[in-house]
Amino acid sequence: MSTHAPRAQGLRTEHGGGSPWAALRRAVHRPDLLWWLPVLFAGVYGLVVLVNFGAIITSINLNGDAVVAPVIGKLLGSAPAGTYTTLGNHAWYEELLYLQATRNLPSYRQLWDITPLLWSLLALGLVVWACWRALGAWPAAIAGSALVCVGELGRFCFLSFDWHVMALLHTTIVAAALVWLAPRAHAISWPRMCALAVVLGLLSAFSSGSDELFTYWALVPLLGTAVLVAWRTAGPVGLRVLAFAVIVSVLALGGGSVFAAVMRDNGFHSVPLPLTFVTADKLVGNITLLFEGYPALGGGYFLGLPLSKYGAAVFVSGMLVLGALILTLVEVRRLVARAAPRSAAGERRADARFVYIAFWTISLLTTSAAFVFSSAPVDIVSARYLLAGYVAVGALLPLLALRGPGWRVLTTAGVCAFAAAASYQVIRQPFTNGSRFPEPSAANSLARFAKQEAVSTGYAGYWDAADLTWLTYLKVKVYPVYECSPPSHSLCQFGLVHVASWYTPRPNTRSLLIVDQTQPYLAAPDPALGRPLAVRSIEHLTVYVYPYDIAAKIAPPPS
After folding, report:
1. Please, what sign has the CA dihedral across residues 270, 271, 276, 282?
2. Which of 81, 135, 462, 499 sits most deeply, having the most CB atoms within 10 A of its CB?
3. HSE, side-chain direction, 13 A CA sphere, residue 187
4. 173 touches 205 (CB < 8 A)
5. Of the candidates 136, 146, 147, the residue with the CA atom closest to the CA atom of residue 402
6. Is the dihedral of CA 414, 415, 416, 419 positive or negative?
7. Burial class, 120, CB count within 10 angstroms (exposed 0-12 / middle 13-18 / buried 19+)
8. For the purposes of burial, counting CB atoms within 10 Å of the CB of 380, is it exposed (0-12), middle (13-18) or buried (19 or more)?
9. Which of 239, 12, 274, 2 is nearest to 137 (CA)?
10. Does this model's pTM top 0.85?
11. Tens digits of per-residue pLDDT, 15-67?
């Protein structure tokens, strides 16, 4: 391998050294082509994911937390106007509007399967573009190759509607806009600067009103970066960038509050988590989850896995992500320590490289700090709150490669190994169902049994309801219930995620009760429901048919 990096990757102060395509053409004719191997390895990973995309999406749709969004999006079409709808702990209003706008398209299911992927790829493209503007073509290729290769938990987050991927997309929009605008601030008039800020602020309001994480992921880094730019630059440049950031943030927060209020007035609500500052006894646990969460997103949650080839691949992924996290923070600290002091007069223009590094460093720090010092993290799945920090690690990773020849070799080899391990994991295990959620075979059997018994409405525990509804292509609409507290067989509506009209009794209508002993919430039918007309065992499900709609005997959730 040549010890010289592609010329296009050199450090720049403002613009990329030519287009990335020109850099790639030059590399083809030189030994420097070997530096682009991470792109090849990442391409293999992308191909493997596409080949197994159906199995991956089916696996994700087994999880009630993921599939409940498209189920609500579709079933709201038949709900009375103004029906009270609760969306869970995350107010995914923006995603809901998209689902409502597209639910009547002929191929809505196929569209919804790929929509989160398209959002994620757009976010990736914005990160790559900003990196190219700030650092060069080859560093952008390194960042993109690393970020595209995520593990099982990462794919779950990036391919689900209500797992914060839209807030991440808005974060990358803010970052790219700042990288584009700051170096041009000296040439942009105040009216145009304000107009651009208003457009970005109003766009960001949708994410601000839908996802509280957007503030930590994007708005705090935006303001922090603008303050640093204002401090480093002279004249109106810094003031323009700072004014841009303030206008965007004010409109995002204010407009987000208005957007959320309008959604609530129209019957859409969420149940916010009762967040507090972490208590002293949970602080160490949160720090542990932080250092488990970042590797888990990259496919490296190896704890408890068998000592096998698959377990080794997961371990390699985790160690590479953890190494990248630590080393990028060390490198940023080194760059800060070695940075030239601010001149007395200040700099005349903002530097794209400085803006890019500042934004993603602050985003990484605020995302991590909010995670560690809040009561939100409870288990490894809480790593979804770290998505912006994970992207920040990939965005800053090229800084290691630009440090010197040895680091360049190490970073290139590391990204290749990371992509290879990620590809192997998908090949070995594209479909997972560790929690024994009902699979398509059970849903198909349920649909046939329901047709035989002339019933299309049913009730089940939360982890089965949306899953079975979606997998039966809505032939059987199954709504979530649970055994009321104190422990009894009486049924209650599942208040955290539901549409109120689901529990309106339908006259002269048969209904199902589906009991799944492998899942919580519903262990047995309530004797008060009466004698069922029929009982059928379907895999690990027990299905009871009643001659009436048992919604009449389902109590509201406790207030």
Report:
1. negative
2. 135
3. 6
4. no
5. 136
6. positive
7. buried
8. middle
9. 12
10. yes
11. 444 565 665 555 444 557 788 999 999 999 999 999 999 999 999 999 999 99
